[in-house]
Amino acid sequence: MRVVDKWRPSLALVAVCVALAAACAPIFVLALLAFGSLDLIGALVAIVVMIGVIAVVLYRTMVNPLSHMAAAAAALLEPGEAPETMHFGTAEAAHLAQSIEALAAKLHRRSHFLAGLAAHASHELKTPLTALTAAAEFLREDLDTADRARFVEQINADAARMAAILQSLQDLARVEAPATGSTDLGPVIEVLSVRYPLARLSVIGIEHELPITAENLTLILSHLIDNAVAAGATQLAIAAHAPRHLTVCDDGAGITPANRSRIFEPFFTTRPDRGGTGMGLAIVRTLLASLDATIELIDTDGGTRFDIRFSPRRLQSSG
């Protein structure tokens, strides 16, 4: 569907006009009969024409748009795109069509995301599971103490990686429907300073109210700081430039040009041997998308910079 943004009469206006026409039509015809301007046949024809006009108005403004939107909504249950609707009648019908269009786009993105996530998850879990099974088979053999300890260590490492992946999937599921609210950077920085004592955090705009709960903002910044520390960063700057704009910068090694387009992909990591699951930035982007916000990696001469922007609609609802 494509909803053209233009003026349309409201449903109330259409209802009032139709009611007035229905009420005035008989009076008008009777007046013409009384003054002799119409005979009985002419009066019947005039009434039929007026009823036809009212029916056409109701069909174009209510029946036809609702029929198209009902078909579009039903098409969401089937593969393929919803049928394109060319006429929407009233302003309320156009608003409903826009909602259906937004829902269709969201469902399509959601379906594509889940399909890719399932494929990646099965692959990422299969690798440590295969290694764990092989190590367990070797432990059945008559091994010396050093080899046995090495395989036990491998089993523990693979089990820990599987647990981390499953925890990341659980976190991802939890952020699909986040709590709404607002906070400033103050309580979040207090938590992060304790959690990351070796990272020097500088804060700008701590007084700005942001349309996100302290818990969700802590989760987002924790993932960004985790990645920064893993990349060798020792200093991080967190700035709320306005209620709609938040930046996070670090002095780490940065992100290579080859990896810049993939950092938000689920399970993409440059440090699988150091416990990286590749889910941190995927969780951050999913959480922000559910809050009508965006995150973008910005080109810098050194280190890494992320820009987070919240939508005006989210600001109004949180206020």
Between the first and last Cα atoms, what is the distance in angstroms? 32 Å
Number of helices: 8
- Look at the helices and sheets and give the structural class: alpha+beta
Q: What is the CATH class designation of the largest domain?
A: Alpha Beta
Secondary-structure element pattern, one letter each: HHHHHEHEEHEEH
- Proportion of strand residues: 5-15%
Total discrete domains: 3
E-strand count: 5
Instruction: Please give the order of strands in the largest beta sheet.
Output: 1-2-3-5-4
Oligomeric state of the chains present here? single chain
Estimated radius of gyration? 31 Å
Shape: elongated
Descriptive notes:
- By secondary structure, the protein is an alpha+beta fold.
- The chain folds into three domains: 11-107, no CATH class; 110-174, Orthogonal Bundle (Helix Hairpins); 185-318, Histidine kinase-like ATPase, C-terminal domain (Heat Shock Protein 90), CATH 3.30.565.10.
- The chain is 58% helix and 10% strand.
- The chain is built from eight helices and five strands.
- The protein has a five-stranded mixed sheet.
- The radius of gyration is 31 Å and the shape is elongated.
- The mean pLDDT is 80.
